[in-house]
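User: For my dataset I need records formatted as: sequence, then structure tokens, nothing else. Please produce one.
Assistant:
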Amino acid sequence: MRLIPIHMLQPGMRLGKRIYNDEGIILLGEQVELTANLITRLGQLGLSYVYIHDPNTDDIEFPELLREETRIQAMKEIKTQFSKLSSSGSMRGYYPHLGKVFVGLMEKILEDISSRQDVMIMLTGMQSMDHALYEHSLNVCIYSLVLGKALRYDNKKLMELGLGALLHDIGKTQIPAHILQKPGKLTKEEYDIVKNHTVYGFKLLKDEPGIPLISAHCALQHHERMDGRGYPQGLSGPDIHDYGKLIALTDSYDAMTTNRIYQNALLPHQAVEMLFAGSGTQYDQKMLELFRDYAAIYPVGLTVQLSTGETAVIVRLHPEAPQRPVVRIIMDQEGNTLTAPYELDLFHRLSVMITGVMGESSSVLSIAEQPQFT
């Protein structure tokens, strides 16, 4: 299989992975042949890339941090609980057993991630047509736990971090939908309303049985900045908890690599470049360096251009050096498809570099031009 940007899909290609709706229901099955209408619909519904079948790469294995059934169950549970909070219209509305539900869910997520020896931050393998609040929350949780494992957190800390990351945006259930889903730029008044989600989230979680207080502080602190220019408290540097610093990174990364109303998705290596533009001011430098070391900036299945002029597909990642993957050469320097593709390990061939990525946008915003990743 290969990972193909939506705008480069062609009629006749066949899906390599199922596509789900926001409730985990299969909308398009594996091997479905894409038509022009289907391709247009996929783009309209927010997908930035899909896996397609390709005889030269169908043997490539795609690593998954969560089992498919765990991810589907998590998506359903998050949506159910968040929807009930939204519909209550009150900070004091529905949420009996909220802590018990999410602690149980976190135990299953931790079980999946702990069973993997080598974990990295990679684009999630499950293709969903609606990257809504709950899918974003799950991704931020997974990415944060990868970094927590890299920091050798024990199970108690992983649970605290995981719950904080999973519920970091729970306060958005108290923000009017017409503001959260506004297609254009927010007004100052609207943006001020959205910023309240940090405080709302803290208030929802701080007294919830089963939710550690430090996890509630993740909801409060994930928009603080190292230079003190964040919100809601304007904390800086050492005053921000490490969990808050970490979730600030994973929250921004998932927002950047996802199609949103106000922006097209960046590729992982572009998003990491954007994050580094905020090193020391927006993000903690040490946390950012750790993130870089564990981020799969070239996802398995991605088509890349090499410094040799050849075209290749990412086959496997080295956990100790994800920036230097194993690739499979599929086209020569003249663009001719090889009848016998072969693999090259860039970890051992330092003279060969990745110089481009299929579907890469030439325009990467500066940190000052970033959209409001709320």
